Amino acid sequence: QVQLVESGGGLVQAGGSLRLSCAASGITFSSHHLYWYRQAPGKQREWVAYIRIGGTTNYADSVKGRFTISRDNAKNTVYLQMNSLKVEDTAVYYCSTLTDWGQGTQVTVSS
After folding, report:
1. Could you give the CA distance from residue 17 to residue 50 in angstroms, rounded to a whole number?
2. Which of 17, 22, 81, 111 would be a feasible disulfide site paired with 95, CB 3.0-4.6 Å?
3. Taking a C-beta distance cutoff of 8 angstroms, is the pair 61, 78 a contact?
């Protein structure tokens, strides 16, 4: 059974930082591209970042230069380092293989 479990969300002031983690089980982690998505209240889920099997990364324009995605295949974990957070980054953040999804972790950025 595949499980993706996010953690690390919380409440932070604008300009602050958070590091999200997503621990995977039930999959051959190193064989999957990995994605972070987010969904703000009243909005559709949007792609945030991905990291390919070989380590290539890409980011949505709205987070480029502020967020960093990384992976640790030995720990079956993908991370999202979020710096210079803005109020508009407030959302539930999900990790995904595009086949499987985690339950999400809430990130709230206050002004």
Report:
1. 19
2. 22
3. no
Spatial contact of 2 and 25, defined as CB atoms under 8 Å apart? yes
Computed on alpha carbons and rounded to an integer, the radius of gyration of the chain in Å comes to 13
| Spatial CB neighbours of 74, under 8 Å, sequence gap ≥ 6 | none
Residues in the chain: 111
For the stretch 59-103, pLDDT in tens is 999 999 999 999 999 999 999 999 999 999 999 999 999 999 999
Cα 12 to Cα 70: distance, rounded to the nearest angstrom:
21
Per-residue tokens: 8: 């690390």
Sequence letter at residue 18: L
